[in-house]
């Protein structure tokens, strides 16, 4: 029986345990998208802290796909070079470096959360003087939460769609050059790919809108393009929103997620990372410990693919139970990794039966001095 500390084999990649740092935007770049000292220390600390997988924040495949001007990016070789020391350090600590490849769609061009998370319209700037831009959307409707200034929005043309697919392919190639071992396509939280998946935001009448097959086309085309350049021995993840939490209307739901997960597995996706929501302010999200785990569990039961569970996991025993009870293959931990960068070491101390084995998980620099 697998538990939280069991290794996880995905293709030729051996992940030392089932604990992953969930992608978390740091909004800490200059407006050039290059990784900074902050990213090196932030991600490096979690690798020291025993995470099996250290996943970057949403990393923009194209400048217009940034949530804020301060997001991390991978749209040039220089971006890959700035990320390379991070992947090297994570590997040195025994962790597996992953990168989340993202396009924020019509949720792009906003100020950072601590500056209010409000749209920056083109020609205007955020408090740091970074300019906004025209955002890309499947349909021309304004994104629901904006009541004041609306972002300039552009309905994606066929050419735009091809550009996004090419940007994902190129980003995957650069991620490989930067030393990443896992690529994750971000198709959740109301960003571009989720906007295409959900009938709430996708009102297109061409091959990319309407029925399930059309709404999922862009995700499938992107996964196919990424898989073409992502080596056969390396794992590919996709993060989805398992549901929009909008049961009162036609929306993206768990039945469609299960169906998509199966399609993705056939295209060579190794793990579906099941989050939820983020598309519309009317969402009725339950919250609380393990609140999204039932979504992951159902995808795991009904689709032929490994799954990651995320959301409200704060305790090693809680994460362990998710794996032991076959609810997910991997547990992604977000905010608790901000509170405790050493969550992985805490888990091995609390769950490992043999204290000597637990001690071995600690970096040699800390072991003799700090391990009890
Ligand atoms: C997030 N989350 C997130 N998700 C994602 O897919 N890409 C991202 O870049 C981010 N950015 C981000 C920043 C910050 C500060 C937080 C707190 C969250 C969501 C995150 O990965 C996770 O799914 C949720 O936080 C729920 O998990 P926890 O925090 O309950 O463990």
From TrEMBL:
Chain intervals for the UniProt region annotation (Disordered): 352-372
Region forming the signal peptide: none
Protein name in UniProt: NADH:flavin oxidoreductase/NADH oxidase
Cofactor: FMN
Keyword set, alphabetical order: Flavoprotein, FMN, NADP, Oxidoreductase
GO molecular function: oxidoreductase activity
CDD domains on file: OYE_YqiM_FMN (cd02932)
């Amino acid at each position: 029986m697998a538990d939280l500390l069991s290794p996880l084999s995905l293709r030729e990649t051996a992940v030392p345990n089932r604990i992953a740092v969930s992608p978390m935007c740091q909004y800490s770049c200059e407006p050039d998208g290059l990784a900074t000292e902050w990213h090196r220390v932030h991600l490096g600390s979690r690798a020291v802290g025993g995470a099996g997988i250290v996943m970057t924040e949403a990393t923009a495949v194209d400048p217009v796909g940034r949530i804020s001007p301060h997001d991390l990016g991978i749209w040039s070789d220089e971006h890959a070079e700035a990320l390379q020391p991070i992947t090297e350090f994570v590997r040195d600590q025994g962790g597996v470096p992953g990168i989340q490849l993202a396009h924020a769609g019509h949720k792009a061009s906003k100020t950072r959360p601590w500056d209010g998370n409000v749209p920056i319209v083109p020609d205007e700037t955020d408090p740091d003087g970074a300019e906004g831009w025209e955002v890309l959307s499947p349909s021309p409707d304004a994104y629901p939460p904006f009541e004041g200034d609306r972002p300039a929005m552009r309905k994606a043309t066929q050419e735009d769609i091809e550009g996004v697919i090419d940007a994902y392919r190129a980003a995957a190639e650069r991620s490989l050059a930067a030393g990443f071992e896992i690529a994750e396509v971000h198709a959740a939280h109301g960003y571009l790919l989720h906007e295409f998946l959900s009938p709430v935001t996708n009102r297109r009448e061409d091959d990319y809108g309407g029925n399930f097959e059309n709404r999922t086309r862009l995700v499938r085309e992107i996964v196919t393009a990424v898989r073409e350049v992502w080596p056969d021995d390396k794992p590919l993840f996709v993060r989805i929103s398992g549901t929009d939490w909008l049961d009162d209307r036609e929306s993206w739901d768990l039945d469609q997620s299960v169906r998509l997960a199966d399609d993705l597995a056939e295209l060579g996706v190794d793990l579906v990372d099941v989050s939820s929501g983020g598309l519309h302010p009317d969402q009725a999200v339950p919250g609380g410990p393990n609140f999204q785990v039932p979504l992951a569990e159902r995808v795991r039961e009904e689709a032929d693919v490994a799954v990651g569970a995320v959301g409200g996991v704060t305790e090693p025993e809680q994460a362990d139970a998710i794996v032991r009870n076959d609810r997910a293959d991997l547990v992604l931990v977000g905010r608790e990794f901000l509170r405790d960068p050493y969550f992985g070491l805490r888990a091995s101390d609390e769950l490992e039966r043999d204290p000597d084995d637990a001690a071995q998980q600690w970096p040699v620099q800390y072991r003799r001095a700090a391990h009890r």
